[in-house]
Amino acid sequence: MRICWCLCFIGVILVVSGTAQEDYDARPVADSLCQSPEQFPEPRPLIASFSYEGIRDFNTRSRSAEFGNSSAEVRSNRRIVAKATFPILLRPKTHIYMGMTYLQEQFKFEDIQENEYPLYQRLEDRSLRAAGVRLLYRRKLERNRFIIATLGASINGDRLDFNYLEYANTNFLFLIGKDLNPRTRLAYGVAFSFDLGIPAVYPVFVYEHRMAQRWKVEMRLPKNIQLRYCFSDKAYLAAKVSIAGASYHLEKELLQGYDKLELRRSALRAGLAFDREIYDWLWFRGEAGVTKPINLFISEPGEGRPNSLIDVRINQIPYAHFTLYLVPPRKICEKYF
Q1: CA-to-CA dists, residue 209 to 5, 56, 146, 183, 226, angstroms
Q2: N- or C-end of the chain: fewer Cβ atoms within 10 A?
């Protein structure tokens, strides 16, 4: 069997740093054909999406030298995400997009009235929100080379206003790649983001392995890897493993004696996702799996886990995620993409 590597179309929509960056690849991976039927179906650029995720009935254990130790059962952890992407420039060799995201996350605890621990009392029903914008630039160069660059910023917290600008999370990505042959692409570069729950600069290596007509391994290291099976140009199944995180700034009183705090978390996820075309421009994704939190802590702004005020431990828990998303109709896609 002949082994091929190719770059996945990435970055067309924003992954807003500091939001619930379990944004599941930043966009639904399985869209539909923008190519000839004999080629492996590739994603079309995303126009808009609406996602819902629910995690229910899991235990937390909190440790703090200042506030003591406690535990609680979370009845539900709900996340709602809305995204939109707008083309600014579409030329044969140059594409420029602008993306926007809004996220809302909420925790509900079991028997919260009987639990006096300040973190659980004040986090109950509190809306954690994020709003951000991102620009993407994609340019085809000579000798089958190309570059991708993104720049974005977001405001994340228990309220959204311009007072948070001093805490705005910024992010960037730069990739350079090459089409090694008609089915093979490779790219590498550097990124800065809060996607893992902490600000970090890290190298990025992206490739795909076309194992057969219907199978493909897609890797975006260090963040995720997935094995995708194509039933047809209208249905896909993907097994995936990913690392993602989030960061929220908190101003409403959460812990006594602290006016401004930060909640940071990251997690390892493994799951199955199924994408299905409903109509030419409308798709549905259902995803389920297990998530294992790597860290979750409350600290003063800019402090890391070693200096956290409260460190929260959570065992692995199941999750379910659903998305409706819009893509360009095939005729438009074939003309511009």
Answers
A1: 4, 36, 19, 9, 10
A2: N
pTM, two decimal places: 0.80
Tokens found for residue 130: 């994020």
What is the per-residue pLDDT across 246-296, written as a single tens digit (0 to 9) for each? 888 887 677 877 878 888 888 899 999 999 999 888 999 999 999 988 888
Average pLDDT, the chain: 79
* Range 232-247 average pLDDT: 88
DSSP codes of every residue in 166-205: GG-EEEEEEEEEEEEETTEEEEEEEEEESTTSS-EEEEEE
| Rounded Cα–Cα distance for residues 287 and 279 (Å) | 20
Domain ranges, residue 323: 4-336
Query: What is the enclosing helix (H) or strand (E) of 121?
Result: helix 118-123
Non-local (6+) Cβ contacts of 82 within 8 A are 48, 49, 50, 51, 101, 102, 103
Question: Is-contact 325 49, C-beta < 8 A?
Answer: yes
Distance CA 170, CA 15 (A): 11
CA gap 38, 130 in Å, rounded: 41
Neighbours of 113 (CB within 10 A): 8
CATH number, domain containing residue 44:
2.40.160
